[in-house]
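Moderator note: this is an archived Q&A kept for reference. The question asked for a predicted structure of one protein chain; the sequence and the answer are reproduced below.
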Amino acid sequence: MTFPGLIREWKDARGKTVDAVIDCADVRAVIFTDGSFALVPSRELDPASVVAALASARPRLERVHAEAYATLDRLAARDRELGRRARLENILGAIRHNAADIPELKDAVRRLAATLPDHTDADDQKDQTASG
């Protein structure tokens, strides 16, 4: 809710010209010609709704707020990576937690791991193909 150009009070939109109105799920972004914008409803929105609205409005706002969108992209990538790591820890924790109660779990995990493709090798092959 601190994104540059966000109008939080409708009185601050007085005298501005609407450039576009973009619908995104439960949020509507009202884009003004000066690059400012308002989100409707203007009550406190959950972060996912705000990010979705910003993504929908990106084609119209990025030219004015390129640095803010670059920051948003970095934060979104970091969030995805943290989510990926948290899922990994949850899976490993479940295995650790259940290993004593399910003796065959270790062998089952080893068998499963042996059947999974090694993405590192596939990524290396893609890199080699692309470079030469």
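Archived answer notes: The first strand starts at residue 18 and ends at 24.
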